[in-house]
DNA sequence: AAAGTGTTGGAGAT
DNA sequence: ATCTCCAACACTTT
């Protein structure tokens, strides 16, 4: 039937029209080849076999897709949402639409790489050209590793120095408006109703809308992402003086930008945000990485680079950068932590905010992550990753995993004796306990002097404040002072074992009588060498 | 071999 | 607000 050919841009992450090189390329090619242009997104049910998406992130994705559809209409196009597994669906689409070119943004997650390999093979079979562009991060991990002579920079400072030698890619312009000749007419034979390609409603995504009534704080979408970014950029003092450790984990209004959910879905381009921050800095005194706002974006770059080059990055076993620690499975502890019922009001407030709103401050993440793992509950960081993955709007495979590796002192960070106190830490920025009162309302009548430690209040006063510990609010599941001491010794043992294990690796001949001072140095050198070898493909 | 550094600890002193 | 100490890690620089 010699029908006109089609150029497809496949959205996965990068759910935006701005700074989207693969989209721009597809539009340009469609125009020059006089082909139809279609932008697609695939709802892949397979993703649920390996990740949990809570109702709030479904909501955020749904809003992001709706907004993307609207923004594509401004260039005379629309979004086609395809229900199905990419590997099964693409061959059908290639045939149905007579596809000659497919473009998408390259991703680094193992799941994506595997999926894309299959799709690329299918494309070859159907004689479909594939163009991948890179726009996920500012610095392409491949180029970073190349610049570092084949090894991954494993410290932030090292990453900074390597990145400083790389060219910073500038955002690309929005795609031009498509001529009518590129707009496909509805083929009556293909499907009876164009509506099957519409952005799904929440109900169609299997989300009960009554479940999401309270999640209105951060709407999804590129339009909201750009609005939020521009609003933050107006506050020059905030941008220039930003120092992460001085922001508050427990203010009632977020003390940081909350642009992370938009970066996660690619509704906001990291390259654009980076450029905008630099524009505000220009000619002004400003803070510096790692604590500055620019530094926060570079943390994202750092974790993406390590994630892209580390085998079994999201697991302890088989992960060469991860200290092997004998965590214990404890469903009771895990459930209490997850549901904000640990008995520590500061911890519970954070976990409840996470579940309700899908975003918590970075330092709040530190406090609850330390608590779950090396600080108090001795549960695996992998358990924590899964809970964050379910609830966080910004749950990002590379970043979420990286932060858990850090906080559990499994990689990157090693000063395991620095433990966050579930009582003292929050008091520094919220001595009144207003944050606790908001998210753990059963404690709202407790005075500021005891709201962080309600178990210390006499039963008489507990009754007076309308919240009896053990009845209306749980007893603390562990005694922090004791748990911390025990866990410190467990960490010490795990680190000592690592040292010995590295020392006994096959390529190294161990000197049984070598002085102790030498041991750590030798072990460290060996580990570094083996890592470098490992990263050189 | 030793000193310095590492995004953001806590407690107690000044 | 800034100091020391706690008991002390990995890794980099000198």
TrEMBL record:
Protein family: Belongs to the DNA photolyase class-1 family.
Composition bias, Basic and acidic residues: 499-514
The organism of origin for this protein: Polypedilum vanderplanki (Sleeping chironomid midge)
GO biological process per UniProt: circadian regulation of gene expression; entrainment of circadian clock by photoperiod
GO molecular function: deoxyribodipyrimidine photo-lyase activity; DNA binding; FAD binding
Pfam families in the record: DNA_photolyase, FAD_binding_7
Protein's name according to its UniProt entry: Photolyase/cryptochrome alpha/beta domain-containing protein
Cofactor(s) required, per the database record: FAD
Alphabetical UniProt keywords: FAD, Flavoprotein, Nucleotide-binding
Region of interest (Disordered), residue spans: 499-537
Note accompanying the cofactor annotation: Binds 1 FAD per subunit.
Polar residues bias (residue ranges): 516-528
Residue ranges occupied by any Photolyase/cryptochrome alpha/beta domain in the UniProt entry: 5-138
């Amino acid at each position: 039937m010699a029908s006109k050919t089609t150029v497809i841009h496949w959205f996965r992450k990068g759910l935006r029209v701005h700074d989207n090189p693969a989209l721009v390329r597809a539009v340009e090619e469609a125009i020059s080849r006089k082909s139809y242009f279609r932008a697609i997104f695939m709802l892949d049910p397979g993703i649920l076999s390996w990740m949990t998406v809570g109702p709030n992130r479904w909501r955020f994705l749904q809003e992001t897709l709706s907004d993307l559809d609207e923004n594509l209409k401004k260039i005379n196009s629309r979004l086609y949402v395809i229900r199905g597994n990419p590997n099964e669906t693409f061959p059908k689409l290639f045939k149905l639409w007579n596809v000659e070119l497919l473009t998408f943004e390259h991703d680094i997650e193992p799941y994506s790489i595997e999926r894309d390999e299959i799709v690329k093979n299918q494309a070859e079979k159907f004689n479909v050209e594939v163009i991948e562009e890179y726009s996920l991060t500012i610095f392409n991990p491949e180029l970073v590793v190349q610049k570092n002579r084949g090894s991954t920079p494993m410290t932030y400072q090292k990453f900074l120095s390597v990145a400083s030698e790389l060219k910073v890619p500038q955002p690309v312009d929005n795609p031009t408006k498509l001529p009518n000749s590129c707009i496909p007419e509805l083929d009556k034979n293909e499907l009876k109703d164009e509506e099957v390609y519409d952005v799904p409603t929440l109900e169609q995504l299997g989300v009960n809308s009554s479940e999401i009534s309270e999640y209105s704080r951060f709407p999804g979408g590129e339009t909201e992402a750009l609005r939020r970014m521009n609003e933050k950029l107006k506050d020059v003092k905030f941008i220039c003086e930003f120092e992460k450790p001085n922001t508050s984990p427990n203010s009632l209004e977020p003390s940081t930008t909350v642009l992370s959910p938009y970066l996660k879905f690619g509704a906001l381009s990291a390259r654009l945000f980076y450029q905008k921050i630099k524009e505000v800095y220009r000619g002004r005194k400003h803070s510096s990485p790692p604590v500055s706002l620019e530094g926060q974006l570079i943390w994202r770059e750092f974790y993406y680079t390590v994630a892209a080059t580390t085998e079994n990055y999201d697991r302890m076993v088989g992960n060469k950068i991860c200290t092997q620690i004998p965590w214990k499975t404890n469903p009771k502890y895990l459930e209490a932590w997850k549901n904000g019922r640990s008995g520590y009001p500061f911890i519970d407030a954070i976990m409840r905010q996470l579940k309700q709103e899908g975003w918590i401050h970075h330092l709040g993440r530190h406090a609850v992550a330390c608590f779950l793992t090396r600080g108090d509950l001795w549960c695996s960081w992998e358990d924590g990753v899964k809970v964050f993955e379910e609830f966080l709007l910004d749950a990002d495979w590379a970043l979420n995993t990286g932060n858990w590796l850090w906080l559990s002192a499994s990689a990157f960070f090693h000063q395991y004796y620095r433990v966050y106190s579930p009582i003292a830490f929050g008091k520094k920025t919220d001595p009144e306990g207003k944050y606790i009162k908001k998210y753990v309302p059963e404690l709202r009548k407790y005075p500021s002097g005891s709201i962080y430690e309600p178990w210390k209040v006499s039963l008489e006063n507990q009754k007076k404040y309308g919240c009896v510990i053990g009845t209306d609010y749980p007893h603390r599941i562990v005694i922090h002072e004791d748990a911390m001491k025990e866990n410190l010794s467990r960490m010490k043992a795990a680190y000592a074992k690592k040292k010995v294990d590295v020392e006994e690796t096959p390529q190294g001949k161990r000197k049984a009588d070598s002085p102790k001072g030498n041991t750590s140095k030798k072990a460290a050198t060996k580990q570094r060498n083996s890592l470098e070898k490992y990263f050189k493909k």
